[in-house]
Amino acid sequence: MPYLQMNDLNLFYEKMGTGEPLLFLHSGYSRGILAFASQLLDFQRSYTCYLPDFRGHGRTRCESLEWNTDRLAEDMAAFLHALDIPRAHLIGYSLGANVGLYLAVKHPSLVASLATIGTGGFSVPTGVEEFEPEWLERNGKHDVIEQMKERHEEAHRGNWREFMRQSAEDWRQYPRLTEDELRGIRCPALFLTGEHDPFGGEARVKRLSALVAGSRSVVVPGAGHRPHMGREQPVLVNDLLLDWLQEHPLERRHEPMDR
Questions:
Q1: What is the dihedral of CA 168, 172, 176, 178, to 10 degrees?
Q2: What is the DSSP string of the chain?
Q3: pLDDT of residue 252
Q4: pTM, two decimal places
Q5: Long-range contacts of 159-163 (CB under 8 A, 24+ apart)
Q6: pLDDT(254) > 60
């Protein structure tokens, strides 16, 4: 799979399928192909799927270990420009959902449609202290530590502690979009949450949907923070997303907004 040299990044991404471009934006502590493993076969039949690893994550390489949601959104805008993709559908999960919101606010011309999973659009730092490196070491969470070493070795170059600090700091602060900025989103938008998601949830996604004109919110019954993953409701979520994407083909978005 290719690397793309882009500004200060050597950005790794997967590409598969044919059809309109669909950019998958992964969660924190993960990387593209892991966060969307249950979507790959279904979506590549109808879309050209791009699954980049964010700055600081997975197999993407950079001298600096610093990142935040806002900067990731700028990287993804540069990624689309570098591949000569003028507009793409976006599906973002957790951290990636917030990145998608930033792109829709700050680079609206690039976003044909936006679907988010696992965000309510505002910062929810519940439980972040349990992902600080010192807490993990003190409480013997060696399985999590080994996962973070293995998943992100190329990105953090062996400094898993700094990776976890950056992730925790971003979790505390972002997203930092105002209600007025969210009201400015004009692309078709779908906000998904699991019924028992502590970071999304019905009340939060309904609030977000109320701010974004013409958007929809869906609560996946019985699911938690990962409704699209294998142990939760991937078939239901895939069918819902694919049906929604078919309602919003890319070519339709080329029409003037006032028609």
A1: 160
A2: --EEEETTEEEEEEEE--SEEEEEEPPTTS-HHHHTTTTHHHHTTTEEEEEEPPTTSTT-EES-----HHHHHHHHHHHHHHTT-S-EEEEEETHHHHHHHHHHHH-GGGEEEEEEES--SS---TTGGGGSHHHHHHTT-HHHHHHHHHHTHHHHTT-HHHHHHHHHHHHHH-----HHHHHT--S-EEEEEETT-SSSHHHHHHHHHHHSTT-EEEEETT--S-TTSTTS-HHHHHHHHHHHHHHS-GGGGGS-TT-
A3: 55
A4: 0.95
A5: 159/65, 160/133, 161/133, 162/65, 163/56, 163/65
A6: no
Which CATH superfamily groups domain 3-123+176-247?
A: Alpha/Beta hydrolase fold, catalytic domain (3.40.50.1820)
Residue 251 confidence class, pLDDT cut points 50, 70, 90 = confident
pLDDT surpasses 60 at 96: yes
Per-residue pLDDT, averaged over 47-64, amounts to 97
> Mean pLDDT in the chain?
95
User: Which residues are paired to 89 by β-bridges?
Assistant: 22, 113
